[in-house]
């Protein structure tokens, strides 16, 4: 992600990509970059949590810790121009999309150097350059919008796709199904990624959805869906290749339900009493996507302790720099209060 | 290098808390993400995780301490390789002073809103005109703009094959094809959101609502997504979209199909709200709306669709957004109206003229932005104001007009402002009741006489 020059374009895509897990489509370099990218999100989020604790970040702040494999695996199959959109739990998506950690952190602290000049905050950030379309605070609203981005790709005869992320809780919103119907009706190139982290705030998926196989929720519209281990970046990557290829080829939408887990509360102020400590620990200790990949890198002798330490140090520096930048940048000038209400006014 | 761990704020409102329990003791090594202590806030008990790795060198706040202020150092973490005793007592890495105060800076008054003067009125049309219905004017506006710009498309229920539920999009499918004139399923929230996404993606959608009553299903996408995103993105994202369709009462369709939404949308920064009356308004303003880079709410009226007017015969005829039009100059009383009520106000003015009252009739055309200049200048001339709208009185357009002249022309007023509006009831079906509930020519005449004491 970090290197935009390396982002492939639709034109540069190989004629045929393999879609089997465990085959040669993932190189040692890919694995190492997945590790690095996931670690960056993890460390960034931990630091955001700390800055929140210090009162430097206000309001709602939803951390992505635990779910890193989902965005990193998905992003690895995308090319320049592909649109990305998600909810308020968006820091990981932005980092994965290649947005600058300084600009993201500075938006969290409400500073003029943030992606939205301090006017959006944690839940509302965008990057035209990286085709990241938000950052949406209304549960489910990003789903028709992401479908509209796919509509624009099709209208413009581009081969780009739209990756539209939403949560298990959001999967109960009416507009999600309105959008799915149109996407299937008009064969729009959209991949719906349901990040099933088992809870929408304090309500477990079993208490919210009459049928909990969310990947099947497009069946009424004939949309294919798959359930994926969202804690395994390689499983995500393999599924993403297939789904993205499906959408890019003009075959219409695809649903990927990622089984994942958030370690922290819903937002910073959630004590998370609706789940047991054992449940959280089980995911952390046995399913952690970063630990999992680190183990594999070591076992396959693709890296060593020293190299991992170096990655660690590099990430720490990036995150420290972002935090410094976010604390030392000025707040927006008062005149910004009145700008950007309308275009050209 | 050691790190101080500070008492964290765990909710947007927390200022202090109780250190309920330590999960670690001096000498323990901790890693990122490990729970080190529990804190009781005003709402709940929460766990605090270590962000950095290291060894607990000192515990500064003991278990059970109440009222620990946010940002107080609670323990010291020694980095890897550092021996605990070497650790200097306090080496804050967190520049606490940088935290913005919870209170705003003393007297940090908000800057004044920049004044955006209304655009100049369009010059009097002296060229050729044609007789056209409002319906034809709207269709022509869309067709002309779609010929100019391939990014413009029309979507909505029955807009293509059926030619529009009210036949406004007659002929467009034939000319532009089904890629650009799109029948949607009955799914207002969905297609409004899809339109917003398409606009974010660089297209210029025209979204037709069969009537604005059904746009209530979609109002979240219109306000939260279309209107606010330009601001929330610090100007990066734009949403050039037009939401159009008939608004207000039609004829005998009952309460759910007969509401005026002018004041609802006019409330929202980030939107433009237009309400044409004549065919020229319809064409000139719809073209302006389509060309505008902002989300525009375009409120039409079903009863006006079939009415004919003389309209400039020119594909380049566009009206400025934000400019009201004085439809009838007068000196005794100002009557401000929009949409179908402009016709009623003009008829009332004719009636008033018979008894020597010379009314000035202003057609607002644009509700947001509001043409303060034209309204205030008129009230300064006539010293009396009557507002006319079909919608309900509470927080209506008339209320806004009354507030405006209080603020800007109070000393010129010779009588209190009078509001003529739909009665404060859901619109009834029975012909007699419906008529009573909506402003009629008589009601406007009476109101004007009342403010003129005649
Ligand atoms: C329309 C709407 N309703 C309610 C909320 C409050 N809310 C914010 S997040 C959330 C839970 C959503 O859960 P899910 O979709 O599973 O996403 P997650 O937070 O787990 O990532 C709720 C109820 C909201 N923001 N918008
Ligand atoms: Mg969830």
Radius of gyration of chain B: 31 Å
CATH architecture designation of the largest domain in chain B: 3-Layer(aba) Sandwich
Q: Which CATH class of the largest domain in chain B applies here?
A: Alpha Beta
Gyration radius over CA of chain A: 19 Å
Q: State the low-pLDDT regions of chain A, or none.
A: 1-5, 16-22
Largest sheet of chain A: 5 strands, parallel
Strand content of chain B: 15-25%
CATH T-level topology of chain A: Rossmann fold
The structural class of chain B is alpha/beta
Number of helices of chain A: 11
**How many E strands of chain A?**
7
Give the mean pLDDT of chain B.
93
What is the CATH top level name of chain A? Alpha Beta
Note down, in words, how this protein is organized:
The complex is a heterodimer of chains A (345) and B (454). Chain A has a single domain (18-325), classed as Thiamin diphosphate (ThDP)-binding fold, Pyr/PP domains (Rossmann fold, 3-Layer(aba) Sandwich). In chain A, 40% of the residues lie in helices and 9% in strands. Chain A contains 11 helices and 7 strands. Chain A has helices at residues 28-53, 68-75, 91-96, 101-108, 142-155, 174-185, 205-208, 233-248, 277-286, 289-299, 305-328, and strands spanning 83-85, 162-167, 190-196, 199-200, 203-204, 225-229, 254-259. Chain A has a 5-stranded parallel beta sheet, with helices on both faces. A two-stranded antiparallel sheet of chain A has the order 4-5. In chain A, helix 1 crosses helix 2 (68-75), helix 2 crosses helix 8 (233-248) and helix 4 (101-108) packs across helix 11 (305-328). Chain A is globular, with a radius of gyration of 19 Å. The two termini of chain A are 36 Å apart. In chain A, 57% of the residues are buried. The model of chain A is unreliable at 1-5 and 16-22 (pLDDT under 50). Chain B is α/β, with parallel strands linked by helices. Chain B is 27% helix and 22% strand. Chain B has 12 helices and 22 strands. Chain B has helices at 134-148, 172-176, 188-200, 219-227, 229-232, 262-266, 279-291, 340-354, 372-382, 397-409, 431-437, 441-452, and strands at 2-6, 16-22, 29-30, 35-40, 45-49, 54-59, 68-69, 73-78, 129-133, 152-156, 181-183, 204-208, 242-246, 272-274, 296-300, 308-312, 325-328, 333-337, 359-363, 366-368, 385-388, 418-420. In chain B, the strands form 5 sheets. In chain B, strands 11-10-12-13-15-14-20 form a 7-stranded mixed beta sheet, with helices on both faces. In chain B, helix 2 (172-176) links the parallel strand 10 (152-156) and strand 11. In chain B, helix 1 (134-148) runs parallel beside helix 7 and helix 3 packs parallel to helix 4. The radius of gyration of chain B is 31 Å and the shape is elongated. At the A-B interface, helix 1, helix 5 and helix 6 of A face strand 5, helix 3, helix 4 and helix 5 of B. The complex binds thiamine diphosphate (TPP) and magnesium ion.
């Amino acid at each position: 992600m970090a290197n935009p020059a390396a982002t492939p374009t639709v034109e540069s895509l190989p004629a045929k990509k393999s879609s089997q897990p465990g085959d040669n489509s993932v190189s040692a370099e890919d694995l190492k970059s997945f590790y690095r990218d996931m670690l960056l999100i993890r460390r960034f989020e931990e630091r955001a949590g700390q800055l929140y604790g210090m009162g430097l970040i206000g309001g709602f702040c939803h951390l992505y810790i635990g779910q890193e494999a989902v965005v990193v695996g998905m992003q690895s199959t995308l090319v320049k121009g592909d649109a990305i959109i998600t909810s308020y739990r968006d820091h990981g998506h932005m980092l994965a999309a290649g947005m600058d950690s300084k600009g993201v952190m500075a938006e969290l602290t409400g500073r003029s150097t943030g992606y939205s000049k301090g006017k959006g905050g944690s839940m509302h950030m965008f990057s035209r350059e990286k085709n990241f379309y938000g950052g949406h605070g209304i549960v489910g609203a990003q789903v028709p919008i992401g479908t509209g981005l796919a509509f624009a790709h099709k209208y413009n005869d581009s081969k780009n796709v739209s990756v539209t992320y939403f949560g298990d809780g959001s999967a109960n919103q009416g507009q999600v199904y309105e959008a799915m119907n149109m996407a299937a009706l008009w064969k729009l190139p959209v991949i719906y990624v349901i990040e099933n982290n088992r809870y929408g705030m304090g309500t477990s998926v079993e208490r919210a959805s009459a049928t909990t196989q969310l990947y099947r929720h497009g069946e009424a519209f004939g949309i294919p869906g798959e359930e994926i281990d969202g804690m395994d970046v390689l499983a995500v990557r393999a599924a993403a290749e297939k789904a993205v290829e499906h959408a890019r080829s003009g075959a219409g939408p695809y649903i990927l339900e990622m089984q994942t887990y958030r370690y922290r509360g819903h937002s910073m102020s959630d004590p998370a009493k609706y789940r047991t400590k054992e449940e959280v620990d089980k995911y952390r200790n046995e399913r952690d996507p970063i630990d999992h990949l680190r183990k594999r890198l070591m076992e396959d002798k693709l890296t060593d302790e020293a190299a991992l330490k170096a990655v660690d140090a590099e990430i720490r520096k990036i995150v420290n720099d972002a935090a410094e930048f976010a604390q030392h940048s000025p707040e927006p000038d008062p005149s910004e209060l009145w700008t950007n209400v309308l275009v050209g006014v | 290098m050691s790190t101080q761990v500070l008492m964290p704020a765990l909710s947007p409102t927390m200022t202090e808390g109780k250190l309920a329990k330590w999960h670690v003791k001096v000498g323990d090594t901790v890693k990122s993400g490990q729970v080190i202590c529990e804190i009781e806030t005003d709402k709940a008990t929460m766990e605090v995780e270590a962000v950095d790795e290291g060894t607990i060198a000192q515990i500064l706040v003991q278990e059970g301490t109440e009222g620990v202020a946010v940002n107080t150092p609670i323990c010291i973490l020694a980095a890897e390789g550092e021996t605990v005793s070497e650790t200097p007592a306090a080496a804050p890495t967190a520049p606490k002073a940088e935290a913005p105060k919870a209170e705003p800076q003393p007297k940090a008054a908000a800057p004044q809103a920049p004044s955006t003067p209304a655009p100049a009125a369009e010059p009097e049309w002296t060229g050729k005109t044609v007789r056209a219905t409002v319906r034809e004017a709207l269709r022509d506006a869309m067709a002309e703009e779609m010929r100019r710009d391939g990014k413009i498309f029309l979507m909505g229920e029955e807009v293509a094959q059926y030619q529009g539920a009210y036949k406004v999009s007659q002929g467009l499918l034939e000319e532009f094809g089904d890629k650009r004139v799109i029948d949607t399923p009955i799914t207002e929230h969905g297609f409004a959101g899809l339109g917003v996404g398409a606009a974010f993606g660089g297209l210029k959608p025209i979204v037709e609502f069969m009537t604005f009553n059904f746009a209530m299903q979609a109002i979240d996408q219109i306000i939260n997504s279309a209107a606010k995103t330009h601001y929330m993105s610090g100007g990066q994202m734009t949403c050039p979209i037009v939401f159009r369709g008939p608004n207000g009462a039609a004829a005998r369709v009952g309460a759910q199909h007969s509401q005026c939404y002018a004041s609802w949308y006019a409330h929202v920064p980030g939107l433009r709200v237009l309400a044409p009356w004549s065919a020229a308004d319809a064409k000139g303003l719809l073209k302006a709306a389509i060309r505008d880079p902002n989300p525009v709410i375009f409120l039409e009226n079903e009863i006006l669709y079939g009415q004919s007017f003389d309209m400039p015969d020119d594909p380049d005829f566009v009206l400025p957004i934000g400019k009201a039009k004085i439809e009838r100059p007068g000196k005794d009383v100002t009557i401000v109206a929009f949409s179908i009520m402009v016709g009623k106000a003009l008829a009332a003015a004719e009636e008033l003229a018979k008894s020597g009252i010379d009314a000035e009739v202003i057609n607002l055309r644009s509700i947001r932005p509001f043409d303060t200049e034209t309204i205030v200048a008129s009230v300064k001339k006539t010293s009396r104001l009557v507002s006319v709208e079909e919608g309900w009185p509470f927080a209506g357009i008339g209320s806004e007009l009354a507030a405006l002249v209080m603020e800007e022309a109070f000393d010129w007023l010779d009588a209190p402002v009078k509001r003529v509006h739909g009665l404060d009831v859901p619109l009834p079906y029975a012909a007699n009741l419906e008529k009573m509930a909506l402003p009629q020519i008589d009601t406007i005449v009476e109101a004007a006489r009342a403010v003129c004491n005649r």
